[in-house]
Amino acid sequence: MSKRPSIVIAAAGLQGLEGLAAVGFGLFSGVETALGEAVDPTSAVAVTVLALGGGLAMLACARMLLNADTRSRAPIVLTQLFALPIAWSLWQSHQPAYAIPLGVVAVLALVLVLSPPVTAWLAPEDGDDDDSEDAGQKAGSGS
């Protein structure tokens, strides 16, 4: 496999940053719940589990992207598409300190993960070899 493009590293870094933020929020929510400071403990447990699970999944997708796993792109794109309405909701609730960074990271990650260098990174390199092997097998089987 060739050298990893810097755009791939940047896209994976942004996805990883979001994953770490989600895990951090999940840990914070879990500690608050354990200390009895949650307003609604049932909802707090659910938020904790979802944040931890989602954050770990985002971190796994970032790693998959770095390893050129083609299965990483769709979940990363979906993560960013879900982050945009969340950023908008935060903006409307007068929380620009959270809304602006989330929106900027989501747009940047979308642009990067859908860029041609990332597409080339995720494209299978052995596609031409399979075609030539199939052609050779077809030619050999016709004899």
UniProtKB/TrEMBL annotation:
Region (Disordered): 123-143
Record keywords: Membrane, Transmembrane, Transmembrane helix
UniProt KW Transmembrane keyword: yes
Ranges that cross the membrane: 45-66, 97-114
Compositionally biased spans, kind Acidic residues: 125-134
Protein's UniProt name: Integral membrane protein
Annotated source species: Actinomadura gamaensis
